[in-house]
Design a protein that fits this description.
CATH class of the largest domain in chain A: Alpha Beta
Shape of chain A: elongated
Oligomer: homodimer
Radius of gyration of chain A: 22 Å
Number of strands of chain A: 8
Strand content of chain A: 15-25%
Distance between the termini of chain A: 58 Å
Structural class of chain A: alpha/beta
CATH topology of the largest domain in chain A: Rossmann fold
């Protein structure tokens, strides 16, 4: 049984507490957070003083990225200490003898449930012993565990911003345009789902369609005429030019 | 039995020929295309001279948008004449007594199969008689048929560009970043699928996460440092600013 303490009460910390509390291979000993807030949907004992943190095999520090650069309060922690940040190097934990990274590749919101079973977890550790321990921890909740180094993880984090945050913002623009013209956004949902099905079985590079890649200037102009918001127009133009530039040599 | 002729041999025309050939309620009489090319996976008789086009109840003109503005060669067509363009007004067909629009809301590629059953089709016609005929045609292949006017359809077409073309381009950027760093793109697929599941059950407006909306300038700078391509950097910056501006009042 791996003994685990989770530090933090943000989105990632809350989801991790909730899933590890249910695992048979892990004992979730404690949660620490500064204000001693209870974790939603989780009965784990919570402490708010550093000196009350109990000993464990692994400590997951699920703080915001900016808080990872000052961990001097936690220097007494023994065991394997890991952070959960995609964009932060493992060496931010250099003061700890046993260190690593436990990066669940998902966009977390507290109120939206997460299926950890299929959720990729990227791990890294500073020794093969620590890596094995972390691998066992990750495999207790997910079928998809990958060992990758800090540089790859950072690149993966940027890729995830494009694949998740930026694409989501495109869907928000689509929603706003529908609302403005009294169109039910659900008309677009099959198209969105189909986009994803195509990507999973093909490469997105090969599934690009639309007026930008066709260099259909008539349609592009019509679209710009319909968009009322100057910001939306600029976004449309920037993306259209970027697509044309990207496929330029092939067109 | 509705008698149908389909004009054109582009992506939309080919998929429509293929699905209507299988329909029990529709008789696909003919395909016309300029060069008399056979339609892949479809046994419909093909003609390339306008005077060989046979009479039918409905003619679907599935030409590119730019070709819809010069249809004088086809002025002898009797019956209901419709185009398939999301971005083109119905009145481009004003020389035809019975006219309409049959707009399947999907991004078509010839080699990728389409499930028409769940594919939304937006229709418009210039009389209730024509609208009913078009409704029957659309319902013979899809469960999701919507009557919308030309202005709404244009807006829907722009929304679809954001929801499909632009989001797809984001996935392509993610793929390129993964390839550059020897990361298997499939690590990102669960995240992409989860993004879509969230949108279908929530509003994308409420599911936005990431460094842009968090105004996490440290991570944003790290990401810009990792991106090698100047174009990718500019795209990242434009989208980050657009997200921050959009959510600005709420942050």
């Amino acid at each position: 049984m791996i003994e685990l303490v989770i530090l933090g009460n943000g989105n990632v910390a809350c989801h991790l507490c909730s899933v590890f509390e249910k695992s048979n291979q892990v004992l979730l000993v404690q949660n620490y957070n500064r204000r001693g807030m209870q974790i939603p949907n989780c009965n784990v004992p919570v402490v708010h003083k550093v000196n009350e943190i109990r000993s464990a095999d692994i400590y997951i520090i699920a703080f915001g990225d900016n808080s990872l650069h000052n961990l001097s309060n936690f220097k007494t922690l023994k065991g394997l200490v890991v952070h959960t940040s995609g964009a932060t190097n493992m060496n931010v934990l250099n003061t700890f003898k046993n260190r690593g990274v436990f990066y669940p590749l998902q966009s977390f919101k507290k109120e939206i449930p997460v299926n950890f079973n299929d959720l990729p977890i990227a791990i890294e550790a500073n020794s093969s012993f620590c890596e094995k321990l972390l691998l066992n921890l990750a495999k207790s909740i997910s079928k998809k565990v990958y060992s990758i180094n800090s540089k790859q993880r950072k690149a993966l984090h940027v890729a995830a911003v494009f694949a998740n945050n930026f694409s989501n913002f495109m869907y928000t623009q689509a929603l706003d345009i529908c609302n403005e013209h009294q169109i039910d956004f659900s008309i677009l949902k099959p198209l969105i789902e189909e986009t994803i099905i195509k990507i999973v079985s093909n490469s997105p590079k090969d599934t690009q369609t639309g007026p930008a890649i066709r260099k259909d200037s008539l349609t592009i102009q019509k679209h710009l005429d319909i968009l009322h918001s100057e910001k939306q127009k600029k976004l449309y133009q920037h993306l259209t030019l970027a697509i044309q530039d990207y496929y330029g040599k092939e067109l």
